[in-house]
Amino acid sequence: MRLVTVLYLGYLVAPIALLFVGSFGARWTNTLLPDGLTLQWYLDVLDDSSFRRAFLTSLKVVVATCVIDTLLGVPLAYAIHSAARRGVRVAARILTLLPIAVPELVLAFGFILVFSSDALPWLGSTEVLIAAHVVVTLPYLLSTLAADMSHLDLAELERVGDTLGAGFAARFVDIVLPSIRFSLLSGLIMVAAISIGEFQISNLVAGFLNRTYPIVLLQAFYGATGFACAATVVLLVLAFLAAGGGALTARAAHAR
Amino acid sequence: MTVRFENVTFRYPDRRAGVFDIDLEVADGELLAVIGPSGSGKSTVLKLLAGFLEPESGRILIDGRDVTGTPPRARHLGVVFQSYALFPHMSAWRNVAYPLKVRGVATAERRRRAVDALGKVGLGEFVERMPATLSGGQQQRVALARALVFEPRALLLDEPLSALDMALRAGMRDEIVRVQQDAGIATLHVTHDQEEALSIGHRVAVMQAGRILQVAAPIELYDRPVDRDVAAFVGQANLWPGSVQAEGRVRTALGELQCATDGFPVGADVVVMVRPESVLPVEADSPGPNRFLGHLAHDRFLGSVRRYDLAVEGGVIRGETRHRMSLSAVRIPPEAVRLLPEASR
Amino acid sequence: MVRNRVLVLLALPAVVFLLVFFVLPLSVLVVEAGADGGSAFGRLWADPVFWKGLQGSLVLGTAAPLFSTAVGYAVALFLARCSERRRTALLFAISLPLTFSGLIVAYGFILVFGRAGFVTLLLAEVGLDPAVVGGLIYSPVGLGFAYSYYLIPRVVMVVLPVVLNFDHAQIDAACSLGASNPRAHLDVLLPQIYPSLLTAFCLTSAVAIGAYGTALALVGTQVNILPLVLYSKISETGTDFPAAAAISVVLMGLCCLVVAVSEGMGGRRKVAARARG
Questions:
Q1: CATH label of the domain that carries residue B54
Q2: In this complex, which of A156, A166, A178 lies closest to B85 when CB atoms are compared?
Q3: Are B75 and B47 found together in one domain?
Q4: Cα separation, B322 vs B306, whole angstroms
Q5: What is the pLDDT of residues B97-113, one digit of tens each?
Q6: Which of B89, B90, B103, B110 to probe by mutation at the A interface, max A CB count within 10 Å?
Q7: Number of folded domains that form chain C
Q8: pLDDT at B27 over 80
Q9: ipTM for this model
Q10: Which chains touch A (3 or more CB pairs under 8 A)?
Q11: Residue C271 lies in a domain
Q12: Which residues of C are less than 8 Å from B72 in CB distance?
C-alpha cells in the first residue's frame, strides 16, 4: 500500500511540478529540464490581448455563475430538504448524478441545436455561456447544501424556531441562512473552481469574442513550451487558491 | 393555563401506530409526566400538543380554546427538545433572546431578559458562550431558559435528560422541578425513565401501544396500579396469576395466599402483585400465614439494598431486604398483597 | 411545517431554469436523433468510424476505471492507517485534481510523458526508445493513464469513508480465529467494502466514457473514442446533425446505463461525482 501510494503521489505531483518549472525556464527542447530562468513567459501571457480578454470573460462568467447558482440553488436545496417526500428525494438524487450521466459534450450539442435555431438565436452570447456554466455547476452546489442541511438537522432547528414563535421568513433569515453559510461558501468555491476551468461545454457554446480562458489556453499548447506552461500555471494557481479556500472554510466550519 | 386532550386520535400515515382516544388534562402549575416504553406514543402526544402533528379526531384545548389548525409558533408553548436543538451559530443569550426577537422586543430589553433567564438557571457567567463550548448539562439549561423566557402558556419537555450522563441527571431533575415551580406553568414531561417520572411528576400518565393505561399521582400509581402492564412497567413487582378461592384467600402456583379480596367475586381470575420490598425474610420455623420455604436462586447486592430471588415450590419470589444474613424462608404480609384484574381494558 | 405552496415557489426558479437549459436541449437532441423515423441510427450502424469510436470508448471506459479503482483502493487503505493530520494533508493533495481543468492534466502529461517528456527522456537513458514511450500517451491506453489523474481522487473519495468506517477489530478477530492477514482482508474486509469499489468503478467509468477535453488537448481528434467522433462531427462544416444527435443519444445512454448500474448495485452513498475532462 505504501509503495503504491508513494508512486501515486509522484504521478500526482510530477505534472504540476513540471508545469511550474517549465513556466520559469528560458529554453526547453528535448532536454530533461529547461535551461535558464526567466519571467518572460508570464509577461508574454500578460501582454497577450486575447488572453487578457479571455481572463476577464472567465472572471465575469465565474461571478455571474456563483450569483445565479446561489439565487437558484439555495431555495431549491431548501425546498428539497423540507419536502421529505420520496419522489422529491429521488428527483434530487438524479439531479446530483446528472453531471456524470449526461456528458457535457452532449449537453453542449443540445445547446447548439436549441440556441442556433431561429426561435432562440442566442448561441455565442455570454448569457448562454453563463447559463451553461450554471447547469454544469448547480448539482455540485445542491449536493453540498443538501448534505449540510441534513447533517445539521436543520429540520429540528426549524421546529424549535417554530415553537419559539418564528414564522417562515424569520426562520429562513435567522436559522437557515446562518446555518448553511459555511457549506454555501465551500460550495461556491467549488462552483468557481469548476467554472474557471470549464472547457468541455464552453468550447462549443462560447462565441469567438467571449471565449473563456481555457479555450484560449488550448491554442497556446501548439506554441512555445514556456508560454504554454505559464498560461497553464495561471489556471493551476487559481485551482490551488480554490482548494486552499475550501480547506480553510472546512476548518472554520469544523470549529463552529 | 391548562392543557386538555379530548378523545384525541392520531395515526401515522404508513403504519398502524399512533395514539388513540387520549383524554388528558394538565392543570395550571402541574407537572404531568408521561411514561411508556419506546413506541408507546408518548412523544406523539407531545408533538400533537406542540402542533407538529394534527389530530385525526378529537380536540386539544389550551386554556379552554381549541388549537386545532394553529401552527406551532402561534401556540406559545415552550418546548425543550431531546437534542436541545440550540442554534449553533448564536451565543447562549442570543439563543435565549430569539423568541423575544421574533416577537419584536427591543434589543436592549431582550438582552436584559435573556441574561436574567440564564441567571435563573445558573448560567449567568456563560451568556456570551457559543453552544458548542458548553457542556451537555449547560446546553440543557440554555434550552430550558429559551423555552421559558417568553412566558409560554405551557412547558413541553421531550426526554430532556436522556442525553445526559447518569450522574448529571439527578441534579438536572431537581433543577427542572425548581424552574417549573418558579414559572408555575402547566408542564408535560415525556420520558422513558420511570424513576424520573415518579420523582418529579405531580401526576404520571402511563402509556402503552398508543393508549393511556393510567393517570395517577406517583404513590397511587405505585401502590394501586390498575393492571398488570402498569404494575410491570412501574417499579419491580412479583406478578402471579391466580384465582379467588374464597373470601380472603387466593390460589396461585405458589400455593394459597391470605389477603383482602375486596371487589373480586369467588372464582375470579386475578393477578397477584407483591412489591419486593414488602416481602419479609423470616426464620424457617417461624409461624404465620403466607410463609414460603425455598432456596436462593439469585442474590444481588445493590449497595443500599439486596435483591434476591427465592426459588420456592411452584415459582420464584423476588424480595428486597437490607439484611445480609443467609435466607431460606420469607413471609408475605397479607396487607402487602394487591389483587389486580387480568386486564383493565 | 412550511406549506407546500411555499416550497413549490422556492423550487420554481431553478426548475424553470433547468427546464429551459437542460431538459429542452436534451429533448431537442433526442427529437433530432429520431427525425426521419430514426434513419440516423441506421447511418450510424453502417458507419465504421462510429463502431471504432464505440469500441475505443468501451476499452477506455473499462481500463481507466479498473486501473483507477485498483490504485485508489490501495491509496485509501494506506490513508486509513495514517494519523489524522497526515491523512488530512494527503487528502488535500489528492483532491486537487478534482477541480483541475482537463487541459492542465493534458499539458502536464505532455511535459512528463510526451515525446520529449521528463519520464520519457529518463527512460531513454536506460535504453527505451523515446519514440515508443513518448507515443504511448497518445494511444487509448495512455489516454486512460492520463484520465486516471482525475479518476483516482474520485475513487479515494468514495472508498475512503467506507474503509475508515470499517471496524479494524474484525481483522484482529479473524486473525485470532486463525486466518492469515491477507486471508483476513480477503474474507472480512473485501466483502464489506466491495459495493463501494463497484460504485467507484461505475462512476469513474461514466466519467471516462463521457469526457473529451483532456483527449482533445492531448491527441486532437485522432484517437477513436466516441466523444471525439461526436466532437469532430459537430465541428465539421455541413454536419449531419441527426447522425451527431444519434451519437449523442448513444453516448448519453451509455453513461446513464453505467450510472444506473452503480445506483442499482447498492450505491446508496451520496456521491457528488465530478465529471471533469
A1: 3.40.50.300
A2: A156
A3: yes
A4: 6
A5: 999 998 999 999 999 99
A6: B89
A7: 1
A8: yes
A9: 0.91
A10: B, C
A11: no
A12: 1
